[in-house]
Write a structure and sequence with these properties.
The protein is mainly alpha-helical. The protein is about 55% helix and about 5% strand. The protein contains 13 helices and five strands. It has a three-stranded parallel β-sheet. It has a two-stranded parallel sheet with strand order 4-5. Strand 1, helix 1 and strand 2 form a beta-alpha-beta unit. Helix 3 crosses helix 12, helix 9 runs antiparallel to helix 12 and helix 10 packs across helix 12. The radius of gyration is 21 Å and the shape is globular. The relative contact order is 0.15. The structure holds tryptophanyl-5'AMP.
Length: about 325
């Protein structure tokens, strides 16, 4: 059985980009039956940017509730919180020792997030992609469903796996493959079709959150940036906003963009927005409702996450022990033969 791993940060709740670009595919892989799926709420990654105890706790519960509401089933997938499984941080250190700094210097997400004053950026932000590699490799996972923005990090994970294997003369870590699929691999901001929909955008109007109710969704779509051309078709270069909304529609409807272009060729932008709002509310409202139910029962979420962490530890701990053997660390209590 092929092993799948993916993660999401609890920096905020989940937005439409996370859902369409990644989580929907997590659920598909879970339901496919051919994969062993491991899904992680990466709180240690979130700590690179989020320094607010209350928000960290609340967001972690919110993301857990959202994942369950989207269809992640703890009976079928391993669902857990990163900091509950020490192997991630432990493997991170080993991998950090086989990762050249030059590789990290090329990471565009670090450059974007660190901004101009790089000297003040935390070390954790710089090391972030090494921890991401550790997440995946701690399970020797081979398939990683993500949105397009994670492509570079995934390439780095492959390079790090290869570097470890070469340096220690082993064929231990498989090279993980990104799975970037669907009509919405890069959902863009509702306010600017050239920027990614993101949790860190200060404007809440730029994104649809899974907590938004029907009125809020309608308001955000109505206010979404548009152009004055009649008809909707896909042309991200010249009509980024129309193209983004069309891709969102296609992903929600699970229909190809080309088919929808024919349908909406003569539709006014405002009418298209009405159709999009109806579809979005139809698809998201049940998720939002289930999410509220899960959120109202934190003890249940605690139990689900504790069980998930136990299963995750049972997979990752022996792998870490093998890694420690490969690098030559002594095992306490074990005599060398
Ligand atoms: P994060 O928390 O930013 O996002 C979670 C997932 O959502 C995808 N995504 C998007 N997809 C389409 N359009 C968008 N606008 C959009 N925004 C986000 C992301 O690509 C991601 O798949 N570094 C990762 C978390 C991580 C991870 C891992 C992922 C940590 N360890 C190991 C895979 C494997 C991140 O920040 O995702």
């Amino acid at each position: 059985m092929q092993r799948v791993f993916s993660g999401i940060q609890p920096t905020h709740g989940i937005h439409l980009g996370n859902y369409l670009g990644a989580i929907r595919h997590w659920v598909r892989l879970q339901e496919d039956g051919r994969y062993e799926c491991i899904y992680c709420i990466v709180d240690q990654h979130a700590l690179t940017a989020l320094h607010d105890r209350r928000a960290m706790t609340d967001n972690t519960y919110e993301v857990a509730a959202a994942l369950l509401a989207c269809g992640i089933d703890p009976a079928k997938s391993v669902l857990f919180v990163q900091s509950h499984v020490p192997a991630h941080a432990q493997l991170h250190w080993v991998l950090a020792c086989v990762t050249p700094i030059g590789w990290l210097n090329r990471m565009t997400q670090f450059k974007e997030k660190a901004g101009r004053d790089r000297e003040r950026a935390p070390l954790g932000l710089y090391a972030y992609p090494v921890l991401q590699a550790a997440d995946i490799l701690a399970y020797r996972a081979v398939l990683v469903p993500v949105g397009e923005d994670q492509k570079q990090h995934l390439e780095l994970s492959r390079d790090i796996a290869g570097s470890f294997n070469r340096k220690f003369g082993v064929d231990f870590f498989p090279l993980p493959e990104p799975l970037i699929t669907g009509e919405a691999t890069r959902v863009m901001s509702l306010r600017d079709g050239r920027r990614k929909m993101s949790k860190s955008d200060p404007s809440d109007m730029s994104r649809i959150n899974l907590t938004d109710d029907a009125d809020r969704i309608a308001l955000k779509i109505r206010r979404a940036k548009s152009d004055s051309i009649r008809g909707i078709w896909y042309d991200p270069e010249n009509r980024p906003e129309a193209s983004n909304l069309l891709a969102i529609y296609a992903a929600l409807a699970e229909r190809p963009v080309a088919e929808l272009e024919a349908e909406f060729r003569d539709t006014l932008f405002a009418d298209f927005k009405t159709r999009l709002t109806e579809l979005m509310v139809e698809k998201l409202a049940p998720i939002t409702r289930r999410m509220r139910e899960y959120l109202a029962d934190r003890p249940h979420l605690d139990r689900v996450l504790a069980e998930g962490a136990e299963r995750a530890r049972a997979i990752a701990t022996p792998i870490l022990e093998e890694v420690y053997d490969i690098v030559g660390f002594l095992r306490p209590g074990r005599r060398e033969t």
